[in-house]
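Go through this fold for my students:
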Amino acid sequence: MNEQYEPLQPKLYVVPTPVGNLEDITLRALRILKSVSLVLAEDTRTSAVLFKHYDIHTPLSAFHKFNEHKTAESYARKILAGEAVALVSDAGTPSISDPGYLLVHQCIEMGVEVECLPGATAFVPALVDSGLPAHSFCFEGFLPVKKGRQTKLNSLVDEKRTMIFYESPHRLQKTLADFIAVFGENRAASVSREISKKFEQTIRGSLSEIVEFFNENPPKGEFVIVISGVDDHAEQDDAQDEKADETILPKSKNKYKNIDADALPKHESKYRNKNKF
C-alpha cells in the first residue's frame, strides 16, 4: 500500500527518475509518485522496476512517442477534471530527448498547471566530468540519423559554446567520424557511458584519440558526447601569428605563398597552417 500523504493539487507533475543508480531519486519525487492518481510512463515495464523497488502502487499508463499525439489532450482533460497526474520517462527528465514536450505544451495551452521537479539527467554529470568549459553550453541531444544530419553539423562549425550530444552504441563510431570531419581530429572532447551505473566511464582527449580508444574497445551502453567549442583565444593567436608572418615575409616575397604546408621542411614549421583540420 502507498503511504498516506496530503492530497495533491490537480496538475501535471513532471518527475525525473534515475538514469542508472536507483538511489538517484529525490524524496519529493517518491512522494509525488505515491500520491498522484495516475503515472504516465514511457515504458510501463521499465517504470515497474522502479515502482517495485520503492513499493509504489500507483497505476501506470503508457505514454510514448507512438501515442503522445493522440493521447495528450485526453490526459490534460483528466487533470482539468480534478486528477493529479505524473509523467516519467524510462530514465532522466521527461522532454529531454524523451517524450513529454507535447503533453506539457498541451497542458499549458488548455490552462493546466505544470510542475517540473528537479532531478536526474545524464548530460549534466557528463558535462561536469568532461573538464570542458561548463559556464556556457548547448545541448543538442541525438543528431538526426539521416535527413538534416549534415545541415545540423554544419550549423555547429563556428559554435563557441561547449556542445553536448547523446548517442547509442551502434552509431557512436560513425558519429565520432562525422565530428572529426566537421570539427577536426584535434578538437578536445569527452565521451561518458553508463552514467551512475556500475561500469560508468569517461574517456577524455582529442576526437582522434577517442576514436582510437573505441576502435580497440567496442562501445557498450548509452553515451554522452561533450565537445569543446571554437576557441576564441586560439583564433586570435593564429590571426596575430599570420599577421606577423606577413610582416616578416611580404606577399610579393613570400616564397611559401603557393606551397602545400605539408611539403615544408621541419625548420619552416612556423609557416604551417595551425588550423589545418
Q: What stands out?
A: The chain has a mean pLDDT of 87. DSSP finds nine helices and ten strands in the chain. The first strand starts at residue 12 and ends at 14.
